[in-house]
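User: Can you help me understand a structure? I only have the sequence.
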Amino acid sequence: MEKKTHFNTVLVTGGAGFIGSNFVKHILDTNVAKKVVVLDAFTYAGTPENLSPFIEKTEVLITTQGESFEKVEWKGDEEEIELQSQKLPRQWIPKLKPYRRRLVSLSELRERLDSFSTAEERFMLVVGSITDAPLVESLIGSVDAVVNFAAETHVDRSILNPGAFLTTDVVGTYTLLEAARKAGWSKESGHRFLHISTDEVYGVAYHGSFTEESPISPRNPYSAAKAAADRLTASFFTTYGLPVLIVRPSNNFGPYQYPEKLVPVMVINALNNKPLPIYGDGTQKREWLFVKDCCSGVATVLTSGRLGEVYNITAGNERENREVVHRILKRLGKPESLIRHVKDRPGHDIRYSISAEKLRRELGWQPQHSFEEAMDATIDWYVENKEWWQRILERDEEYRRFWEEWYGERLAT
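Assistant: Let's start by predicting it. Here is the structure, written out as tokens:
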């Protein structure tokens, strides 16, 4: 397959999330994409500030399923929008209040996309769900590549609410694939559809490391939903000739990671002198991948990968969870007495491990950051950007509800 050095317009779903926002910055900085359209539903983990300064220079386009909206009411500084078949959670309203917003029907959105293709602007943000077929079809018709980061991603949350993971991760991925198929995307069309999967689809690595040829055996609702979307994407290549690519990254860490994953939770709690909850004895092993290396790996596959193929992305930095926590405490100068061993996650996988030899051998990708350097830089980022995470802790009622439901009893015992 001919290598594509750049794309005119790339649709990045979930582009206001952790890895998605870092990827947007990467492909614009490296000119992999001339322009980027972000589609994000701004559920709990979608954060507008992740896209600074892009979002400050544009209008946020708010859409709905269907061609029109019923009414817009302004009551003081509170925005209330009642839209036909509205699928968006209402928490996007306060998140986007500081930014310029414009309500658009789908026909207006298509007009904006047409003008965007020839405008000087390089970034567009659309608020909407990947399960919204009319919206997705409107966007697919105006881009030449899709990178699908949109997903529910946290194992703990999937245990509490597996249905949300099936809806977003499986139905949402299907909606995107079907839109690309209806638009006539093919192996010969020059389009590309890159789906972000996860190393967790392989299940527990008791011995050695999984390759792309290893069978998948997910063990929790999150990884099962991702495995379904992964194989659904592959099936559209085999059945319809859709130009798909799949990547399975290992455990990411870095700036802008929502404070529910291990690294930000431990850093923030340590800074606040609160208990650091470690599941069980903390010997669970993960391969830690700096988000910037993940983004360069995804971009490499997007431009150079063989259609229909799966590529693992990992830097091979295998560490026990407790080792990562000890490093965080040492970097921050905090006592190990803050560590609290709590009741383990149900069905907690003891070890994930994958090989990125295929990506290195075929496409020449190499990680550029050592684990130690990247982890220290990440810890320092959370220290230097307290406003970012304090806003979530103080204003996000959903976050506080999850924390109490999941950790309240564990930390109380």
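Now, to help you interpret it: The chain has 14 helices and 16 strands. Residues 199 and 250 are 5 Å apart (CA to CA). Let me know which part you'd like to focus on.
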